Amino acid sequence: MSMFRPTPEQKSAIDYDYTMVITACPGSGKTAVMKEKIRKITPNLPSHKGVIAITFTKKASQELKHRCNENAHDTKQSFFGTIDSFCVKELIMPFLSRLWGGKPADCTIVKRLESPYSHFIKEEYRSPTATDIVNDDGFRRIYEAGVLWMNSFAALALLILNSSESARRYVKARYSHVFIDEYQDSSLAQHELFIKLLDLGLVGAAVGDISQSIYEFRGGNPALLRALVDDTDRFKHFEITINHRCHPSIINYASRVLDSDFRLIDSDEIRVFRRVVKGSLKDAGSVISGWLSDWLNKGSWGIEKASDVAILAKRENSLKLLMQGLDLDYRVYFDSPLDAIGTECSALYSRLLAFKFGAIPTVQDLIDDQFEFVGQKGVSIPALRKKIIGLRAIEDVDRILTEFNDLSVLLDMESDERIKDAVRDILANETIRKQFMAVDDNELQVMTLHKSKGLEFKLVFHFDLEEWSFPFRQFVQGDWDNPVYPNLSQDENLHYVGITRAENFCCLIRVTLRQNAQGNFVQSQPSYFLSLPQLEGFYS
Description:
Layout: H1 8-15, E1 20-24, H2 30-41, E2 50-55, H3 58-68, E3 79-82, H4 83-100, E4 108-110, H5 130-135, H6 138-144, E5 147-149, H7 153-163, H8 165-174, E6 175-180, H9 188-199, E7 203-208, H10 223-230, E8 236-240, H11 248-258, E9 272-277, H12 281-298, E10 309-313, H13 316-323, E11 330-333, H14 337-341, H15 344-357, H16 363-370, H17 381-389, H18 397-410, H19 417-428, H20 430-433, E12 444-448, E13 457-462, E14 474-476, E15 479-484, H21 488-499, E16 502-511, E17 513-515, E18 521-523
Parallel strand pairs: 1-7, 1-8, 2-3, 2-6, 4-5, 6-7, 9-16, 10-12, 10-13, 11-12, 13-16
Antiparallel strand pairs: 14-15, 17-18
Helix pairs in contact: 1-2, 2-3, 4-7, 7-9, 11-21, 12-13, 15-16
């Protein structure tokens, strides 16, 4: 383990012992700061207590937990996971029955609320609040029908804390601190839950970056992070401003996208390039394949293997067209047919495939990852472990489905033909199946800008930089000359996120032929992002 030497900014945040908000730029080492704070706190806690450490993804929570536990450090009864996981495991499963009766453990957990359950509630809620649940009895009817909707977890958890003295006593007895990462993507319900935990006496730390807010369409609200910064009575604000990941010229370019007055940092050379490729995205795939073959042979830009390279675009359809021209091996990260179903059982099958093909390396990793919502339902873990291990030796599709179904029955989940057909589609499609395999060093990494959040690569190609492709543009009342960009703030942040995934080199590419909504190829014009005057002189 390399020795962590905090910068003065990082040390100030680590040393502060009270409720705080940290705003941290990309590559600033915020995970290291959270780790150091947790490792500083936990030795002083009694054995029955811990901290709550909430991250945006399961992968991020596993990384944080691993780093906190290094060198056999004891994190006591700390919780590491997503906010949905915390809500369901610590509040909904043990306490919801005291409010609404029934057995939460018997419910099916769904990501998407479909018919008939979607008709139980009065309106389409993107991210309902506790007030919404109180005022709309449809949420209770959904529960009584045996369904728990993930989008309502934070609101349900807050409702439980507001209503149950037992739940409040439990949280105060079990936890001393609460950390929440990626706070700029929190919804109002999640924000209200965080404030409630502080009101119960927990010490809080919120970490985020307004410039990386890209999930407003899911209910994320960056104004909530600003509100914490402005609340100087309760929160002390710390800034971590040094990007240790990106070459200085990449930092300068990306920062000028958002702030034309950004104070530049010294840079000895420019490593942001703009290139125009004649033809379509398919042609561009062929062109960059030639570039990359040469660079990989020479070790240019610090790349040692193909997986050091990311190919990013705003739209999946753009990536599909580009992939047709790639002459190198690649792995694409799209939502799979199982993701589109969005039930507890489809999530189980997805993780079982990831174990079978190696993306999840061990049975314990699978249990830690998948069973956060299952609660093990009285199943013998040794028996479950043995059955899962056997999956790797099975090749026959029907037998795989039989084993998956047996496991879902053991866990009291309900499979159906949609889920089975989704598994068949995945097994029959090599491109999709690769997502469930361990990362291969010889594969380029191909994904949307949204999926690149939190990742880093030596070299990044950023596509979709044509007008009408990115940022999102609307055609209003026949006026072609005055563009309207209704999501410009979010798209600027997404562009910023894409650029700052690059450590050593970022190439921004426009193709001359853009595929329009009708599927026809038309001459393109440069994206709005390529016309910003504050970027002149900061690219090659």
